[in-house]
């Protein structure tokens, strides 16, 4: 199965990491993979464009089936390999609803993170405003408080949508890890800190930890005061 | 079933419209609903905040289960009412992959649309730049060409992920309708124009057409030259 799969990915990209975690959770180790460099613009190479007209990573192929969007690949893998590895979407209506709800709030969470840590990358020099960056930081702080509250309502040691690990964790954990990589304080956000500590030792996550984070364990301090 | 459901929504909001179409497709007419006014800031009312901490529409409740994110609600409805109404996620791996892929590309499509038509709303006056709006318009044009190409590859009269109507149409059609509401030219984008003409008469879509568009059929011409 896994031998029919190819993943083109970049280190430290949350969307790529989601697909890698999903593949690990579904016991699909052994897939073909190629680590490409964003710095060298390899995501715009012909190899990527052949699969992905957007020139983005992840690019993912299973046999003749192409599913590049990270959430799409996660849904696809869970649906096609339902009985392999860990079940990532629960059956109970209430549990399932919470998994979906947190997954899609996760899209907003990720955008608000990017609007702060990649502000200079997204906004050309002549268009930057301190007032905009300040507003983005405030929006991220508001978002962080929401997630801190979500975790507060669950019992200690819970995952994002309850006791079990789910697609909500697959899709949102890479955002949480990136927050801490960029200096988020576990003292300011103790529930997120606990969640991060719980999941970073999970086998699927350890196995897919961004290699350049391993090589250079010190991140940045962009978010330390948030 | 539908009597246990409540939808709080706003007219012309693509995320609200997605949920309304999904409810129609799953034959869940008769749900409780309340049309709220964004202009009057009713999405920040206590009634909404009680269900949705973000103060956003749609806000959706089924019994005690709350699923506010529009994509989450669509997945939830399809999963919980699989055998009711129309099947919105196909079983075949290739068809399913394409539905998921287009759904999540649809998130980008919607963002690129908003970055043009709501630029002044998102960006405070002192931070606006003609260069940014021009770039956003170019990004939208590039995105439109992608979708025009996707439709070109399918046979005439197809839906977004093939011959059948699916969650890809549920989630992306409201974006397409908004494009035409804001003046997109069907001459410039004939495949999107044909798709729009095909779907706007579909019963689920007619039944949920934004009431303020019906009252005032003339839209804007923001996108006429794109």
Automatic annotation (TrEMBL), chains A, B:
Residues 3-85 form the GST N-terminal domain. PROSITE patterns: GST_CTER, GST_NTER. InterPro entries: Glutathione-S-Trfase_C-like (IPR010987), Glutathione-S-Trfase_C_sf (IPR036282), Glutathione_S-Trfase (IPR040079), Glutathione_S-Trfase_N (IPR004045), GST_C (IPR004046), Thioredoxin-like_sf (IPR036249). GO terms for cellular component: mitochondrion. Pfam families: GST_C_3, GST_N_3. GO terms for molecular function: glutathione transferase activity; maleylacetoacetate isomerase activity. Residues 92-220 form the GST C-terminal domain. GO terms for biological process: glutathione metabolic process; L-phenylalanine catabolic process. This is Glutathione transferase. It comes from Perca fluviatilis. The lineage of its organism: Eukaryota, Metazoa, Chordata, Craniata, Vertebrata.
């Amino acid at each position: 199965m896994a031998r029919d799969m190819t993943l083109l990915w970049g280190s430290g990209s949350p969307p790529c990491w989601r697909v890698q975690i999903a593949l690990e959770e579904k016991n699909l180790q052994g897939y073909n993979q190629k680590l490409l460099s964003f710095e060298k613009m390899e995501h715009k190479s012909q190899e990527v464009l052949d699969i992905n007209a957007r020139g983005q990573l992840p690019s993912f192929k299973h046999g003749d089936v192409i599913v590049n969007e990270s959430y799409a690949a996660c849904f696809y893998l869970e649906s096609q390999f339902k009985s392999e590895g860990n079940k990532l979407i629960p059956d109970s209506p209430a549990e399932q609803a919470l998994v979906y709800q947190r997954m899609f709030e996760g899209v907003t969470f990720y955008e608000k993170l990017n609007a702060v840590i990649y502000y200079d990358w997204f906004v050309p020099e002549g268009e930057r405003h301190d007032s905009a960056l300040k507003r983005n930081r405030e929006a991220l702080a508001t978002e962080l408080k929401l997630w801190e509250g979500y975790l507060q309502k669950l019992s200690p040691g819970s995952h994002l949508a309850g006791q079990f690990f789910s697609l909500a964790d697959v899709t949102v954990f890479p955002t949480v890890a990136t927050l801490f990589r960029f200096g988020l304080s576990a003292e300011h956000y103790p529930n997120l800190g606990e969640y991060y500590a719980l999941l970073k030792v999970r086998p699927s996550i350890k196995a897919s930890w961004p290699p350049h984070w391993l090589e250079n364990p010190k991140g940045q301090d962009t978010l330390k005061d948030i």
